[in-house]
Design goal:
Helix content is 52%, strand content 12%. By secondary structure, it is of the alpha+beta class.
């Protein structure tokens, strides 16, 4: 898995503080940033947090580049709808050389790993064969319709990938560019950093949080699973490891 911040709103803490200042004072737009020292900015941020006033945090966004994750992660992450996504297409990209993400439980079990790897290679072989069959059929059709061989081959391959992708596994790798505002990131970290989240998206969310804290420590100091600052919300489904979780995110 590889995760990096491609871009983020500069002076994000001050932008949020300025938005709060606008809500609670008679300041003019031209003077909103005046007097926003580091201390004053932190004061506004603390006030917003204590009041649960989160809309000002929507003015600051992060764009992440993500690769080496599975399509299973893609299915989960796109449920967070207040975000923007660009995803590598399996319609247009030949995935015969796809890599696959192996869950730790399988990686640590030789018998399960052998079965998993065999399944991945079986799927790869079927993908290649189906794509080849469909490409040849479509190519012949296009040539008969008057296309030259080179353009017919290109068009036929794209059409074949679209249908052959149906046999690709959930473990197949993908790449994502995702943009999300801070309010949405808080919700994302709250749900996906929890020990109850699926292992891969939890790993992704924790790394994203670590990167965000490196940019804006104050804005993300309390971000993470709910139990780092309050009782566990999972009830009888709790992992029972609040102490370990708090220590882990304190030193992230």
């Amino acid at each position: 898995m590889k995760v990096e911040i491609l871009s983020h709103t500069p002076n994000g803490d001050k932008i949020i503080a300025a938005a709060a200042k606008l809500c609670y004072s008679s300041s003019e737009i031209d003077t909103l940033l005046d007097g926003l020292t580091a201390e004053r900015t932190d004061s506004f941020l603390d006030m917003l947090t204590s009041l649960g006033h989160e809309s000002p945090f929507e003015h600051v966004t992060f764009t992440f580049g993500i690769e080496g994750v599975s399509r299973a992660v893609l299915a989960q992450i796109t449920r967070h709808r207040i975000a923007s996504f660009s995803v590598q297409s399996q319609r247009y990209v030949n995935k015969e050389n796809f890599t696959y993400i192996i869950p730790p439980a399988i990686m640590n079990n030789p018998e399960a790993l052998a079965e998993f790897t065999a399944a991945m290679e079986y799927d790869r072989a079927r993908y290649i064969k189906i794509a080849r069959i469909l490409t040849e059929e479509k190519k012949s059709q296009l040539i008969a319709e008057g296309r030259d061989e080179k353009s017919a081959e290109k068009i036929a391959q794209k059409a074949a990938f679209e249908d052959a992708r149906g046999v690709l596994p959930n473990a197949c790798d993908t790449k994502i560019i995702m943009t999300m505002n801070i309010r949405s990131l808080y919700n994302f970290f709250n749900l996906r950093c929890c020990n109850r989240a699926q292992w891969e998206i939890r790993t992704l969310a924790t790394e994203m949080l670590r990167l965000c804290r490196g940019v804006y420590p104050k804005l993300f100091e309390k971000a993470g699973p709910p139990c780092i600052s309050s009782p566990c919300h999972e009830g009888s489904m709790t992992c029972g490891k609040i102490k370990e979780v708090r220590e882990s995110f304190a030193s992230l």
